[in-house]
Amino acid sequence: MKANAIVITGGYLNSNNAKTAHGLIRGTDRFTIVGIIDDKSAGKDAGEVLDGKNRNIPVYGSIADFVKTSSEKATYCIIGVATKGGVIPDSLRVLLKEALKDGFSIVNGLHEYVSDSEELASLARSKGLEIIDVRKPKKVKDLHFWSGKILEVRCPKIAVLGTDCALGKRTTTRFLVEAMKKAGYKAEMIYTGQTGWMQGAKYGFVFDSTLNDFISGEMEHAIVSCFEEAKPDIIFIEGQSSLRNPSGPAGAEWIVSADADAVVLQHNPPRKQYKDMEFYPAYLPEIQDEIELIKIYGAPTVALTVNTEKMSEQEARQYAAGKEKELGIPVILPLEDGVDRLVPFFVEMIQDSLAQV
Q: Domain of 127: which CATH number?
């Protein structure tokens, strides 16, 4: 059974800083989210704050409000925001202390570990509570080097990459998995970030807390384990950052080490510079240029998915129609229209892979 959980967002629920919370609001197979703690959006439904869709997840002004007024009980308190540098600011530390005092175990996806705080760790121990630091790395003895076993994976492997970070790659990956399952196929997601784990994906690793020497091996191990144990018809791999993001380039491992058969590329047209790097003279490439780079690495881009932030629906649809004609591949709006249009293409890939067995 899924455990009940509340999510703290510190007043950032309606911003990109709360993308972990956003993912959990959209869906999680690991927890049942029974409340969001956000003083600026208190009294609203979390889904309506996120995208206008009621999801029956109330927002409370404080943990105390949840404890006093909610008919639901919760076991876990999840940190739903990304902070600058991944550190735990004092304001968040106060909320975590309050959560522990009220009997909630903590789930933390930040770079700084809650368990490293003697005050919080001691409080958790005294009350018999759990602290889960999702980004805490594995011990070296538990890590894997790349071995070439990826060649034994005979189902299609699709990398969901982006032109920048914080574009919704994880959400699109989940949509693709859900669409293929709805169509009657066995699809699995390889998570590569902490939120993917929180949403319940079984196979994967946290990319940005893995020693560099083991990234390709952990990627391979997750995919091979998924193929051998779950026996999926198709695998979708959640992307991180982008190939050219100066602060943390990523993507080559998805194509080269994971031997991706194809790429779905996510892009936000209004974004011209990399997120939080407006001070640096680096600009997002033209889509055609990025597709060519991905092809050089070894995979075709079979669809472009559009993050419509800062676009009107008319602007987004005009962009999609124009780009589809220009690129000759499907260009879709996942949040507005879903991804069902891509299902026939992936069904064909599955059929081709079965014919080669």
A: 3.40.50.720
Q: Both 121 and 161 in a single domain?
A: no
Nearest alpha carbon to residue 276 among 45, 85, 94: 85
Residue 31 is predicted with a pLDDT of 98
Which DSSP letter does residue 356 get? T
Domain total for the chain? 2
DSSP 93-145: HHHHHHHHHTT-EEEE-SSS-GGG-HHHHHHHHHTT--EEETTPPPPGGG---
- Exposure on the CB side of residue 11, measured as CA atoms within 13 A: 5
Please indicate, yes or no, whether residues 42 and 167 belong to a single structural domain of this protein: no
131-133: strand order across its sheet:
59-60, 31-37, 3-8, 76-79, 105-108, 131-133
pLDDT in tens, 8-65: 999 999 998 999 999 999 999 999 999 999 999 999 999 999 999 999 999 999 999 9
The sign of the dihedral angle between the CA atoms of 137, 199, 82, 65 is negative
Q: In terms of Cα–Cα distance, which of 90, 146, 149 is closest to 120?
A: 90
Q: Return the H-helix or E-strand segment holding 155.
A: none
Do residues 33 and 6 make contact, with C-beta atoms less than 8 angstroms apart?
yes
Confidence check: pLDDT of 1 > 80: no
Six-digit token pair at 252? 């080559």
* 3-class DSSP assignment, residue 231: coil
Last residue of a domain, one of 98, 133, 168: 133
Using alpha carbons, list the distances in angstroms from residue 240 to 44, 61, 143, 196, 286.
Answer: 31, 32, 20, 11, 19
Q: Which of 57, 60, 39, 37 is nearest to 48 (CA)?
A: 57
Rg of the chain (C-alpha set)? 20
CA dihedral 265, 271, 277, 279 (to 10 degrees): 150
